[in-house]
Amino acid sequence: MILQNKVAIIHGAAGSLGGAHARTFAKEGAMVYLTGRTPATLERVLVDIKNAGGNAAIIRCDALDENDVKNCLQQIVDRSGRLDISFNAIALGDVQGTPLTEMKLSDFTRPIFNAMNTQFITGTAAGRIMKKQKSGVILSLTATPGGSAYPLVGGFGPACCAMESFSRDLAAELGPFGIRVVNMRSGGSPDSKVFLDAVEQGGDTIRDILKKMAQDTMLKKLPMMNEIANLGAFLVSDKASSLTGYTFDITCGTTQALGHQQYVIPFK
Is the pTM of this model over 0.85? Predict the structure, then answer.
């Protein structure tokens, strides 16, 4: 188990990818603190982890509230004595499927505002604790629009770019204290809730879009959630002790960035 005796916090652990990372980190030996604004939504993840023999606990925390995050991290340090891993996977409130020329300003700026606020709040709060320890890893997650032009993703693309830039800058500042900061850039996961919901609503039309998305990759498939979580577990482990300040691509080799409007799933 590559995360044995590590203490991790996962913001947004009730979501598909947050939950996948929580389960994987626990499976690899970490004590995982599951956080979110609604503790009841975290119960399923907690039960799954405990049934699999892992260790986890729930703490209510709004990752967009500085005081909430500060108090939450202090609770973790009081309980476990340290904080080794911080991963933020909260939803950004993005609107997709609408052309930029037809989008409301508030819908465009919301995911950018949320991304920068939550990454700054949680990343710097974790960094202050980790500086005292002189160790720790801060992990974030973006998507393909962080590196390529993408139609109809609204403010999500700029949010991904900003998150990746922030991750690099934070790594540069915290590196001298023994703290690593890394990001993953994923492709869409067909087994995530957003895609499963889209298939349920759109049926064969969405399935065809997913097939086209897979064909746009070098491996002719899309990354599953467990594959992304496995990379996340490796990056926050001591096996990756020399890796920092970088965005690691796990898009299965997306090549054309889906540069055709008909390939984009109209999420709203």
Answer: yes
